[in-house]
Design a protein that fits this description.
The structure holds 2 protein chains of 2 kinds.
Chain A (H helix, E strand, L loop, with lengths): L1 H22 L6 H7 L4 H7 L3 H24 L5 H18 L1 H11 L17 H16 L8 H20 L11 H12 L3
Chain B lengths: L4 E7 L5 H7 L4 H7 E5 L9 H6 L6 E5 L7 E2 L2 E2 H11 L2 E5 L1 H5 L1 H4 L11 E2 L2 E2 L10 E4 L6 H12 L13 H4 L10 H5 L40 H4 L21 E2 L2 E2 L8 H12 L4 H4 L6
Parallel strand pairs in B: 1-2, 1-3, 3-6, 6-9
Antiparallel strand pairs in B: 4-5, 7-8, 10-11
Helix pairs in contact in B: 1-7
Classes of the chains: A mainly alpha, B alpha/beta.
Protein backbone atom coordinates (compact mmCIF):
# COMPACT_ATOMS: atom_id res chain seq x y z
CA UNK A 1 0.00 0.00 0.00
CA UNK A 2 2.80 2.34 1.01
CA UNK A 3 4.72 1.45 -2.13
CA UNK A 4 1.62 2.23 -4.22
CA UNK A 5 1.31 5.64 -2.58
CA UNK A 6 5.01 6.34 -3.20
CA UNK A 7 4.63 5.41 -6.87
CA UNK A 8 1.66 7.72 -7.17
CA UNK A 9 3.60 10.55 -5.51
CA UNK A 10 6.39 10.03 -8.02
CA UNK A 11 3.89 10.20 -10.91
CA UNK A 12 2.52 13.48 -9.54
CA UNK A 13 6.02 14.93 -9.18
CA UNK A 14 6.89 13.94 -12.74
CA UNK A 15 3.68 15.51 -14.08
CA UNK A 16 4.30 18.66 -12.05
CA UNK A 17 7.86 18.88 -13.33
CA UNK A 18 6.68 18.75 -16.92
CA UNK A 19 4.04 21.40 -16.34
CA UNK A 20 6.44 23.68 -14.49
CA UNK A 21 8.83 23.37 -17.42
CA UNK A 22 6.23 24.21 -20.05
CA UNK A 23 3.93 26.66 -18.23
CA UNK A 24 6.22 28.07 -15.54
CA UNK A 25 6.14 27.49 -11.80
CA UNK A 26 3.83 30.28 -10.66
CA UNK A 27 1.28 29.86 -13.43
CA UNK A 28 0.92 26.13 -12.85
CA UNK A 29 -1.73 25.31 -10.24
CA UNK A 30 -2.55 22.20 -8.26
CA UNK A 31 -5.79 21.79 -10.32
CA UNK A 32 -3.64 21.92 -13.50
CA UNK A 33 -1.46 19.10 -12.21
CA UNK A 34 -4.48 17.09 -11.06
CA UNK A 35 -6.13 17.56 -14.47
CA UNK A 36 -3.04 16.38 -16.33
CA UNK A 37 -3.22 13.14 -14.30
CA UNK A 38 -7.00 12.86 -14.51
CA UNK A 39 -7.17 13.03 -10.70
CA UNK A 40 -9.58 14.98 -8.55
CA UNK A 41 -8.10 18.03 -6.84
CA UNK A 42 -9.26 16.62 -3.48
CA UNK A 43 -7.39 13.41 -4.05
CA UNK A 44 -4.32 15.37 -5.08
CA UNK A 45 -4.24 17.02 -1.66
CA UNK A 46 -4.03 13.55 -0.11
CA UNK A 47 -0.56 13.36 -1.55
CA UNK A 48 0.69 16.94 -1.25
CA UNK A 49 -0.93 19.42 1.11
CA UNK A 50 0.25 22.47 -0.86
CA UNK A 51 2.17 23.49 -3.95
CA UNK A 52 5.10 24.62 -1.79
CA UNK A 53 5.30 21.19 -0.19
CA UNK A 54 5.17 19.61 -3.62
CA UNK A 55 7.92 21.96 -4.78
CA UNK A 56 10.16 20.91 -1.86
CA UNK A 57 9.48 17.22 -2.40
CA UNK A 58 10.41 17.57 -6.06
CA UNK A 59 13.80 19.10 -5.32
CA UNK A 60 14.49 16.32 -2.79
CA UNK A 61 13.47 13.76 -5.41
CA UNK A 62 15.88 15.27 -7.96
CA UNK A 63 18.65 15.45 -5.37
CA UNK A 64 18.23 11.76 -4.52
CA UNK A 65 18.11 10.85 -8.21
CA UNK A 66 21.32 12.73 -9.08
CA UNK A 67 22.98 11.83 -5.76
CA UNK A 68 22.57 8.11 -6.41
CA UNK A 69 24.18 8.37 -9.82
CA UNK A 70 27.07 10.41 -8.47
CA UNK A 71 27.55 7.96 -5.63
CA UNK A 72 28.03 5.15 -8.15
CA UNK A 73 30.76 7.22 -9.80
CA UNK A 74 32.38 8.12 -6.47
CA UNK A 75 32.53 4.48 -5.48
CA UNK A 76 34.43 3.46 -8.61
CA UNK A 77 38.16 2.95 -8.35
CA UNK A 78 39.07 5.51 -11.03
CA UNK A 79 41.10 8.72 -11.17
CA UNK A 80 39.62 12.11 -10.30
CA UNK A 81 40.00 13.06 -13.96
CA UNK A 82 37.84 10.14 -15.02
CA UNK A 83 35.33 10.87 -12.27
CA UNK A 84 35.09 14.48 -13.46
CA UNK A 85 34.25 13.30 -16.95
CA UNK A 86 31.67 10.79 -15.74
CA UNK A 87 29.92 13.34 -13.51
CA UNK A 88 29.63 15.81 -16.39
CA UNK A 89 28.46 13.06 -18.70
CA UNK A 90 25.72 11.99 -16.29
CA UNK A 91 24.65 15.58 -15.66
CA UNK A 92 24.31 16.33 -19.39
CA UNK A 93 22.65 12.98 -20.02
CA UNK A 94 20.05 13.84 -17.38
CA UNK A 95 19.62 17.28 -18.96
CA UNK A 96 18.96 15.60 -22.32
CA UNK A 97 16.72 12.76 -21.15
CA UNK A 98 14.95 14.54 -18.31
CA UNK A 99 15.38 18.24 -19.14
CA UNK A 100 12.54 19.16 -16.79
CA UNK A 101 14.63 17.92 -13.82
CA UNK A 102 17.66 20.08 -14.47
CA UNK A 103 15.42 22.92 -15.56
CA UNK A 104 13.61 22.73 -12.23
CA UNK A 105 16.88 22.76 -10.35
CA UNK A 106 18.21 25.79 -12.24
CA UNK A 107 15.10 27.84 -12.87
CA UNK A 108 12.85 27.04 -9.97
CA UNK A 109 14.93 25.86 -7.01
CA UNK A 110 17.75 28.37 -7.42
CA UNK A 111 15.53 31.26 -8.53
CA UNK A 112 12.59 31.01 -6.14
CA UNK A 113 14.31 30.80 -2.77
CA UNK A 114 11.23 32.06 -0.94
CA UNK A 115 9.40 28.83 -1.79
CA UNK A 116 12.19 26.81 -0.21
CA UNK A 117 12.87 28.82 2.92
CA UNK A 118 10.88 26.63 5.32
CA UNK A 119 12.29 23.18 6.08
CA UNK A 120 14.55 23.49 3.06
CA UNK A 121 17.15 25.83 4.57
CA UNK A 122 20.70 25.85 3.35
CA UNK A 123 21.31 22.73 1.33
CA UNK A 124 18.88 20.52 3.26
CA UNK A 125 16.79 19.55 0.26
CA UNK A 126 19.74 18.89 -2.03
CA UNK A 127 21.82 17.11 0.58
CA UNK A 128 22.29 13.83 -1.29
CA UNK A 129 23.58 15.60 -4.38
CA UNK A 130 25.83 18.07 -2.55
CA UNK A 131 27.24 15.31 -0.31
CA UNK A 132 28.42 13.37 -3.35
CA UNK A 133 29.98 16.48 -4.90
CA UNK A 134 31.76 17.09 -1.57
CA UNK A 135 33.05 13.52 -1.53
CA UNK A 136 34.27 13.88 -5.11
CA UNK A 137 36.18 17.05 -4.14
CA UNK A 138 37.48 15.69 -0.83
CA UNK A 139 38.82 12.49 -2.35
CA UNK A 140 40.34 14.45 -5.22
CA UNK A 141 42.28 16.68 -2.82
CA UNK A 142 43.22 13.79 -0.56
CA UNK A 143 44.84 11.81 -3.38
CA UNK A 144 46.65 14.91 -4.60
CA UNK A 145 44.76 15.35 -7.90
CA UNK A 146 42.84 18.48 -6.92
CA UNK A 147 44.01 21.71 -5.33
CA UNK A 148 42.92 22.47 -1.75
CA UNK A 149 40.63 25.50 -1.78
CA UNK A 150 37.41 26.82 -0.33
CA UNK A 151 34.56 24.43 -1.07
CA UNK A 152 32.21 27.02 -2.52
CA UNK A 153 34.83 28.39 -4.92
CA UNK A 154 35.17 24.92 -6.39
CA UNK A 155 31.46 24.12 -6.17
CA UNK A 156 30.52 27.40 -7.88
CA UNK A 157 32.99 26.80 -10.66
CA UNK A 158 31.79 23.27 -11.23
CA UNK A 159 28.04 23.80 -10.99
CA UNK A 160 28.07 27.28 -12.52
CA UNK A 161 29.72 26.01 -15.67
CA UNK A 162 27.40 23.00 -15.98
CA UNK A 163 24.35 25.11 -15.19
CA UNK A 164 25.39 27.70 -17.78
CA UNK A 165 25.79 25.10 -20.51
CA UNK A 166 22.45 23.46 -19.72
CA UNK A 167 20.81 26.89 -19.71
CA UNK A 168 22.29 27.76 -23.12
CA UNK A 169 21.16 24.38 -24.39
CA UNK A 170 17.65 24.94 -23.04
CA UNK A 171 17.51 28.27 -24.87
CA UNK A 172 18.62 26.53 -28.10
CA UNK A 173 21.69 28.72 -28.32
CA UNK A 174 24.31 25.97 -28.45
CA UNK A 175 25.29 25.06 -32.01
CA UNK A 176 26.03 21.45 -31.11
CA UNK A 177 24.31 18.80 -29.05
CA UNK A 178 25.05 19.20 -25.32
CA UNK A 179 26.71 15.79 -25.09
CA UNK A 180 29.31 16.83 -27.64
CA UNK A 181 30.73 19.28 -25.15
CA UNK A 182 31.53 16.66 -22.49
CA UNK A 183 35.23 16.29 -23.42
CA UNK A 184 35.99 20.01 -23.61
CA UNK A 185 34.10 20.86 -20.45
CA UNK A 186 35.65 17.97 -18.52
CA UNK A 187 39.07 19.20 -19.61
CA UNK A 188 38.33 22.79 -18.61
CA UNK A 189 36.88 21.92 -15.21
CA UNK A 190 39.62 19.47 -14.34
CA UNK A 191 42.28 21.93 -15.49
CA UNK A 192 40.75 24.64 -13.30
CA UNK A 193 40.56 22.42 -10.22
CA UNK A 194 43.68 20.26 -10.52
CA UNK A 195 46.68 20.68 -8.28
CA UNK A 196 49.30 21.20 -11.01
CA UNK B 1 48.49 -0.74 59.14
CA UNK B 2 48.31 -2.15 55.63
CA UNK B 3 51.69 -2.57 54.00
CA UNK B 4 52.70 0.19 51.62
CA UNK B 5 53.04 -0.80 47.99
CA UNK B 6 56.59 -0.25 46.80
CA UNK B 7 57.19 1.56 43.52
CA UNK B 8 60.30 2.06 41.45
CA UNK B 9 59.92 5.16 39.24
CA UNK B 10 62.46 4.87 36.49
CA UNK B 11 63.05 7.76 34.13
CA UNK B 12 64.20 6.92 30.60
CA UNK B 13 64.45 9.65 27.94
CA UNK B 14 62.12 12.19 29.43
CA UNK B 15 61.42 15.83 30.17
CA UNK B 16 60.02 14.77 33.57
CA UNK B 17 56.67 16.24 32.61
CA UNK B 18 54.81 13.25 34.03
CA UNK B 19 56.68 13.60 37.31
CA UNK B 20 55.66 17.24 37.52
CA UNK B 21 52.10 16.42 36.65
CA UNK B 22 52.06 13.71 39.32
CA UNK B 23 53.38 16.21 41.90
CA UNK B 24 50.15 18.16 41.38
CA UNK B 25 48.10 15.29 42.70
CA UNK B 26 45.97 17.02 45.35
CA UNK B 27 45.95 14.19 47.91
CA UNK B 28 49.63 13.34 47.89
CA UNK B 29 49.85 12.95 51.66
CA UNK B 30 47.24 10.23 51.68
CA UNK B 31 48.82 8.60 48.62
CA UNK B 32 52.18 8.41 50.39
CA UNK B 33 50.49 6.65 53.31
CA UNK B 34 49.66 3.80 50.96
CA UNK B 35 52.60 3.79 48.56
CA UNK B 36 56.31 4.38 48.84
CA UNK B 37 58.92 5.02 46.20
CA UNK B 38 61.98 2.90 46.61
CA UNK B 39 63.38 5.30 44.04
CA UNK B 40 62.03 8.38 42.33
CA UNK B 41 64.14 10.88 40.37
CA UNK B 42 62.59 13.88 42.15
CA UNK B 43 60.97 12.70 45.38
CA UNK B 44 63.23 11.74 48.31
CA UNK B 45 63.44 7.98 48.35
CA UNK B 46 65.10 5.17 50.25
CA UNK B 47 67.64 4.12 47.62
CA UNK B 48 69.92 5.97 45.24
CA UNK B 49 69.86 5.35 41.51
CA UNK B 50 73.24 3.63 41.84
CA UNK B 51 71.83 1.22 44.41
CA UNK B 52 68.83 0.54 42.20
CA UNK B 53 70.87 -0.31 39.12
CA UNK B 54 73.56 -2.31 40.89
CA UNK B 55 71.26 -4.35 43.15
CA UNK B 56 67.86 -5.95 42.78
CA UNK B 57 65.72 -4.14 45.32
CA UNK B 58 62.30 -5.61 46.07
CA UNK B 59 59.28 -3.67 44.77
CA UNK B 60 55.82 -4.40 43.44
CA UNK B 61 55.38 -1.82 40.70
CA UNK B 62 57.78 -0.54 38.07
CA UNK B 63 56.89 2.85 36.59
CA UNK B 64 58.67 3.86 33.42
CA UNK B 65 58.64 7.49 32.37
CA UNK B 66 60.15 8.49 29.04
CA UNK B 67 60.99 6.91 25.72
CA UNK B 68 63.30 3.92 25.50
CA UNK B 69 66.35 3.35 23.35
CA UNK B 70 68.91 0.55 23.47
CA UNK B 71 71.70 3.11 23.60
CA UNK B 72 70.33 4.99 26.58
CA UNK B 73 71.78 4.39 30.06
CA UNK B 74 70.91 5.27 33.64
CA UNK B 75 73.60 4.99 36.32
CA UNK B 76 75.93 3.53 33.69
CA UNK B 77 73.59 0.63 32.96
CA UNK B 78 71.56 0.31 29.73
CA UNK B 79 67.95 1.20 30.41
CA UNK B 80 66.93 -2.00 28.56
CA UNK B 81 68.74 -4.07 31.15
CA UNK B 82 67.28 -2.20 34.13
CA UNK B 83 63.77 -2.55 32.73
CA UNK B 84 64.23 -6.27 32.04
CA UNK B 85 65.64 -6.95 35.52
CA UNK B 86 62.83 -5.23 37.35
CA UNK B 87 60.08 -6.28 34.97
CA UNK B 88 60.73 -9.90 35.94
CA UNK B 89 60.30 -9.12 39.63
CA UNK B 90 57.36 -6.75 39.83
CA UNK B 91 53.63 -7.45 39.81
CA UNK B 92 52.82 -4.66 37.42
CA UNK B 93 54.60 -2.31 35.03
CA UNK B 94 53.18 1.10 34.21
CA UNK B 95 54.38 3.09 31.23
CA UNK B 96 53.52 6.63 32.21
CA UNK B 97 53.25 9.25 29.53
CA UNK B 98 53.07 9.02 25.76
CA UNK B 99 56.88 8.74 25.37
CA UNK B 100 57.09 5.58 27.50
CA UNK B 101 53.99 4.19 25.79
CA UNK B 102 54.38 5.12 22.10
CA UNK B 103 57.68 7.02 21.78
CA UNK B 104 56.03 10.45 21.84
CA UNK B 105 58.00 13.60 21.26
CA UNK B 106 61.42 11.97 21.87
CA UNK B 107 60.72 9.48 19.10
CA UNK B 108 60.66 12.52 16.82
CA UNK B 109 64.17 13.52 17.93
CA UNK B 110 67.38 12.21 16.43
CA UNK B 111 68.00 9.81 19.30
CA UNK B 112 68.56 6.39 17.74
CA UNK B 113 65.74 3.81 17.67
CA UNK B 114 63.62 5.53 20.27
CA UNK B 115 60.17 4.12 21.01
CA UNK B 116 57.77 3.23 23.77
CA UNK B 117 58.14 0.02 25.78
CA UNK B 118 55.71 -2.07 23.73
CA UNK B 119 54.80 0.26 20.87
CA UNK B 120 56.54 2.38 18.28
CA UNK B 121 53.62 4.71 17.65
CA UNK B 122 50.89 2.17 16.84
CA UNK B 123 53.27 -0.60 15.78
CA UNK B 124 53.73 -3.39 18.30
CA UNK B 125 57.31 -4.12 19.44
CA UNK B 126 58.66 -7.39 20.76
CA UNK B 127 61.63 -6.51 22.96
CA UNK B 128 59.59 -6.70 26.14
CA UNK B 129 56.76 -8.92 24.92
CA UNK B 130 57.27 -11.32 27.86
CA UNK B 131 55.90 -8.57 30.08
CA UNK B 132 52.89 -7.57 28.01
CA UNK B 133 50.44 -9.20 30.40
CA UNK B 134 51.66 -7.24 33.38
CA UNK B 135 51.92 -3.83 31.65
CA UNK B 136 49.40 -1.04 31.84
CA UNK B 137 49.83 2.04 29.63
CA UNK B 138 48.96 5.41 31.08
CA UNK B 139 49.42 7.54 27.99
CA UNK B 140 49.23 11.34 27.93
CA UNK B 141 51.56 14.28 27.58
CA UNK B 142 51.63 14.57 30.47
CA UNK B 143 49.67 11.87 32.30
CA UNK B 144 46.70 12.92 34.34
CA UNK B 145 47.80 12.45 37.98
CA UNK B 146 44.42 11.04 39.03
CA UNK B 147 44.52 8.44 36.29
CA UNK B 148 47.92 7.28 37.49
CA UNK B 149 46.94 7.28 41.18
CA UNK B 150 43.61 5.55 40.56
CA UNK B 151 45.37 2.90 38.48
CA UNK B 152 47.88 2.33 41.27
CA UNK B 153 45.07 1.95 43.83
CA UNK B 154 43.32 -0.51 41.51
CA UNK B 155 46.53 -2.56 41.41
CA UNK B 156 46.94 -2.34 45.18
CA UNK B 157 43.39 -3.52 45.74
CA UNK B 158 43.66 -6.20 43.04
CA UNK B 159 40.85 -4.67 41.01
CA UNK B 160 40.79 -6.08 37.49
CA UNK B 161 41.44 -3.32 35.01
CA UNK B 162 40.20 -3.98 31.49
CA UNK B 163 42.59 -2.55 28.93
CA UNK B 164 42.34 -1.53 25.26
CA UNK B 165 44.62 -2.57 22.38
CA UNK B 166 47.34 -0.25 23.64
CA UNK B 167 47.05 -1.60 27.21
CA UNK B 168 45.34 1.55 28.45
CA UNK B 169 42.75 1.04 31.21
CA UNK B 170 39.32 1.33 29.61
CA UNK B 171 37.94 3.06 32.69
CA UNK B 172 39.99 6.10 31.70
CA UNK B 173 40.59 5.66 27.98
CA UNK B 174 37.50 4.05 26.49
CA UNK B 175 35.75 7.39 25.97
CA UNK B 176 37.06 10.22 23.86
CA UNK B 177 38.02 13.65 25.20
CA UNK B 178 35.00 14.90 23.25
CA UNK B 179 32.87 13.14 25.88
CA UNK B 180 32.15 15.72 28.54
CA UNK B 181 33.34 18.64 26.41
CA UNK B 182 31.29 21.70 27.30
CA UNK B 183 31.30 22.74 23.62
CA UNK B 184 29.41 19.73 22.34
CA UNK B 185 26.38 21.75 21.25
CA UNK B 186 28.67 23.89 19.10
CA UNK B 187 30.13 20.74 17.59
CA UNK B 188 26.67 19.38 16.82
CA UNK B 189 25.52 22.55 15.09
CA UNK B 190 28.86 23.20 13.37
CA UNK B 191 29.54 26.53 15.04
CA UNK B 192 33.26 27.20 14.97
CA UNK B 193 35.41 29.17 17.39
CA UNK B 194 37.88 31.72 16.08
CA UNK B 195 39.91 32.91 19.06
CA UNK B 196 41.95 30.95 21.56
CA UNK B 197 40.68 31.32 25.09
CA UNK B 198 37.16 32.09 23.89
CA UNK B 199 34.60 30.08 25.77
CA UNK B 200 32.15 29.62 22.94
CA UNK B 201 32.36 27.67 19.71
CA UNK B 202 33.86 24.37 18.64
CA UNK B 203 37.56 24.09 17.83
CA UNK B 204 37.29 20.95 15.71
CA UNK B 205 36.59 22.58 12.35
CA UNK B 206 39.48 25.02 12.10
CA UNK B 207 41.70 24.90 15.14
CA UNK B 208 42.93 21.34 15.21
CA UNK B 209 40.92 20.01 18.17
CA UNK B 210 41.41 16.25 18.24
CA UNK B 211 38.95 15.49 21.02
CA UNK B 212 36.50 13.53 18.81
CA UNK B 213 39.16 10.90 18.12
CA UNK B 214 41.38 11.06 21.21
CA UNK B 215 40.92 8.56 24.01
CA UNK B 216 41.08 10.16 27.42
CA UNK B 217 39.19 11.44 30.43
CA UNK B 218 40.29 15.10 30.38
CA UNK B 219 36.73 16.41 30.24
CA UNK B 220 35.45 13.94 32.81
CA UNK B 221 38.26 13.97 35.36
CA UNK B 222 39.26 17.61 35.26
CA UNK B 223 42.83 18.84 35.59
CA UNK B 224 43.58 20.32 39.02
CA UNK B 225 39.95 19.40 39.66
CA UNK B 226 38.75 22.46 37.75
CA UNK B 227 39.62 22.56 34.07
CA UNK B 228 40.59 20.97 30.78
CA UNK B 229 42.18 22.25 27.57
CA UNK B 230 38.88 22.56 25.71
CA UNK B 231 37.17 24.20 28.67
CA UNK B 232 39.96 26.77 28.89
CA UNK B 233 39.77 27.49 25.15
CA UNK B 234 42.64 25.44 23.72
CA UNK B 235 42.09 22.55 21.33
CA UNK B 236 42.79 18.99 22.44
CA UNK B 237 46.22 17.97 21.08
CA UNK B 238 45.47 14.26 21.04
CA UNK B 239 48.32 13.67 23.50
CA UNK B 240 47.18 10.22 24.61
CA UNK B 241 47.35 8.76 21.12
CA UNK B 242 50.16 6.91 19.31
CA UNK B 243 50.11 9.61 16.63
CA UNK B 244 51.11 12.34 19.11
CA UNK B 245 52.68 14.81 18.37
CA UNK B 246 51.10 15.60 15.05
CA UNK B 247 52.26 18.53 12.94
CA UNK B 248 50.29 21.78 13.02
CA UNK B 249 48.53 21.26 16.33
CA UNK B 250 46.43 24.40 15.91
CA UNK B 251 45.25 23.59 12.43
CA UNK B 252 42.58 21.18 11.21
CA UNK B 253 43.78 19.38 8.11
CA UNK B 254 41.01 19.70 5.57
CA UNK B 255 40.42 18.62 2.01
CA UNK B 256 38.17 21.13 0.27
CA UNK B 257 36.74 22.25 3.63
CA UNK B 258 36.10 18.69 4.86
CA UNK B 259 38.11 17.62 7.92
CA UNK B 260 40.48 14.79 6.96
CA UNK B 261 39.98 13.04 10.29
CA UNK B 262 36.38 12.53 11.28
CA UNK B 263 34.97 11.66 14.70
CA UNK B 264 35.75 8.03 15.59
CA UNK B 265 33.58 5.49 13.80
CA UNK B 266 31.74 8.07 11.69
CA UNK B 267 31.44 7.29 8.00
CA UNK B 268 32.34 10.23 5.73
CA UNK B 269 29.12 10.14 3.71
CA UNK B 270 27.03 10.02 6.88
CA UNK B 271 29.08 12.81 8.45
CA UNK B 272 28.59 15.06 5.44
CA UNK B 273 24.88 14.37 5.38
CA UNK B 274 24.55 15.18 9.06
CA UNK B 275 26.77 18.25 8.71
CA UNK B 276 24.61 19.46 5.83
CA UNK B 277 21.52 19.18 7.99
CA UNK B 278 22.93 20.72 11.15
CA UNK B 279 24.60 23.57 9.27
CA UNK B 280 21.18 24.60 8.01
CA UNK B 281 20.16 25.54 11.55
CA UNK B 282 20.78 29.11 12.53
CA UNK B 283 20.49 29.05 16.29
CA UNK B 284 20.66 32.54 17.63
CA UNK B 285 22.16 31.71 21.02
CA UNK B 286 25.11 29.99 19.30
CA UNK B 287 25.76 32.82 16.88
CA UNK B 288 26.29 35.44 19.56
CA UNK B 289 28.48 35.51 22.63
CA UNK B 290 27.09 34.02 25.78
CA UNK B 291 29.91 34.57 28.26
CA UNK B 292 32.47 36.65 26.39
CA UNK B 293 30.17 39.55 25.43
Amino acid sequence: MLKKKENKKELIMQAALELFASKGFYTTTIPDIAASLKMSVGNMYNYFKSKDILAREIIKYISVYLGQQLREINEQDISTKEKTRKIIEIYFKTASLKPEMIDYFLRIYLSNREVFKDSCEGMLCVNEFVTEIMIYFEEGVKCGDLREQDFFSAFGLFMGYLGGMVFLNGENILPKDLNEYVDDISFNIYKALCSE
Amino acid sequence: MEKKMRILWLSAITCNGNTHSFLNYPHMEQFLDDFEFIYHPVIDSKYSLQEIVSNEIECEVLIIEGAISEEFQRGGVPIFEIIKNYSKRVQKILTVGTCATFGGIFRESDYKDTAGMHFDQDRALHNFSDFLDKTISISGCPIHPEVLVNTLYAIKKSVLLRVDNFLRPKEFYAYTVHNGCTRNEYFEYKVDNHKFGELEGCMFYDHGCQAPFTHGSCNKILWNEVNSKTRAGVPCFGCTEPSFPRDNLFNTKKNMAIPEHLPLGVNKRVYLTLAGITKAFKIDRFQKKILDD
